[in-house]
Design goal:
This protein has six helices and no strands. It is flat and about 55 Å long. Helix 1 packs across helix 3, helix 2 packs antiparallel against helix 3 and helix 4 packs across helix 5. The chain is an all-alpha fold and 172 residues long.
Amino acid sequence: MTLLPVIRNRVRDRIRKALPSPGAVVCGALLWATAMGASALLNLLFDDWETPAKIRFVSLLYAAGGALAFPVGLFLARLVSLGRHWQVALAAAFVCLLATTIGLTGGLFALHYRSYYAQWHEPALTVAWSVQFVHTVATAFYQFIVLGIRLYFPLGFIALALASIWFARQQR
């Protein structure tokens, strides 16, 4: 019974140590959002894609996903690599930033996708609506993975490598 408070305190201390500074969160989120939005923008412009309004919307979606993902990815990378070698910090930053950026940007895409198809769905919070919601979100994530990840290359991948190196150097 006395072991539980000890474990709880260790977890709380580890989480407290992993929290990044507010300055790093704000500056990093702005830079990460800029890099992800610019990556999508350049890819869409080079592909001569759709209309300028749609290009702006997709670029802003990627920027918003990047802005939301950076603080979460940074926290998770710090949590995983706390007290470990720089190689672990490099890998943790790479994986955590990649996963959170794709996940949160895909989530924003899924919300937009779901809002479009909501007009054909059943009333909210019914069993049929729940099934439709899950399938719509799953389809949106699938489409984002298949079609949307390519917008991160090459600029987003370069930014990911640079951010991971920056993180590993900070952890030394």
